[in-house]
Structure formats: C-alpha cells, structure tokens
Write a structure and sequence with these properties.
The protein is an alpha+beta fold and 81 residues long. 17% of the residues lie in helices and 19% in strands. The chain has helices at residues 27-33, 64-70, and strands at residues 2-7, 13-17, 75-78. It has a three-stranded mixed sheet with strand order 2-1-3, with no helix packed on it. The structure holds FE2/S2 (inorganic) cluster.
Length: 81
C-alpha cells in the first residue's frame, strides 16, 4: 500500500509505502520516519500550525487512518518537495 506525496510548487510526486500496522501512527511522525520533511516547531503540540497540509489539516494531530478517511485517494500535498 502506498501514499502519494505531491509538492505544491514543484508538482513532483514521491510514493511511500505503509503497512497495516502504520495506520494508527501519527502522520507527522510517520512522514518524518520516511524521510519526508514537514515543518514543525512546536513538537506536535498543535500550536505552531507549521505542519499543515491540504485543507489546513495538521499532520501532528492525525493518524494515517484518520487522514485516509478524509482523503481517500491517499494523496498528501506539501508546500515543497
Ligand atoms: S507541529 Fe506544530 S502544529 Fe503540528
């Protein structure tokens, strides 16, 4: 199973794989582990709002499963890639 990460400015896409066990993981932590840089300065407290992706969703406040419920095509749009 995979997620598409798309850069808003570059239009570039990157595909990363996930497993069933990753669904309950925090999206910000998951992306960071996979080498996708997401801005963050509050350590996932939901304060800085720098970790937002499309629709203003905060990656630090979503699990993969919650993100997929909101975005069934599993595409994450980031500011730069
Ligand atoms: S990391 Fe600061 S709001 Fe998500």
């Amino acid at each position: 199973m995979q997620i598409e990460i798309k850069g808003k400015a570059s239009g570039r896409s990157l595909f990363i794989h996930y497993e069933e066990r990753d669904l309950e993981e925090n999206l910000l932590i998951f992306l960071t582990k996979k080498g996708v840089t997401i801005a963050s300065s509050c350590g996932g407290e939901g304060v800085c709002k720098k970790c937002d992706i499309q629709n203003g969703w905060l990656t630090c406040k979503l699990t993969l499963k919650e993100f997929f419920q909101r975005q069934p095509d599993k595409k994450i749009i980031v500011g730069y890639l």
